[in-house]
Amino acid sequence: MQKGQINVQTENIFPIIKKFLYSDHEIFLRELVSNAVDATQKLKTLSSVGKFTGELGDLTVQVEIDKKAGTLTVKDRGIGMNAEEIDKYINQIAFSSAEEFVKKFKTKTEAEKNAIIGHFGLGFYSTFMVANKVVLRTKTYKKGGQTRAMQWECDGSPDYTITEIDKEDRGTEVIIYLDEDSKEFVEDQRILGLLNKYSKFLPVPIQFGSEKVTETVEGEKDEKGKDKTIEIEKPRIINNTDPLWKNKPADCTDEDYKKFYRELYPMTFEEPLFQIHLNVDYPFNLTGILYFPKVKRNIEIQKDKIQLYCNQVFVTDSVEGIVPDFLTLLHGVIDSPDIPLNVSRSFLQSDASVKKISGYIMRKVSDKLEELFKKDRESFEKKWDDIRVFIQYGMISEEKFFDKAKKYMLYKNTEGKYFTREEYEKHIKKLQTDKDKNLIVLYTSDIEAQHSYIEAAKEKGYDVLVLDGILDSHFINTMEQKESTTRFTRVDSDTVDKLIKNDEEIPSKLDDKQKDELKPVIERSIDKEKFAVVFENLSENDVPFMITQPEFMLRMKDMSALGGGMMGMDNLPDQYNLVVNANHPLMTKILDEKKEDTQNKIVKQVYDLALLSQNLLKGQSLSEFVKRSIDMID
Question: Can you give the pTM of this predicted structure?
Answer without folding.
Answer: 0.78
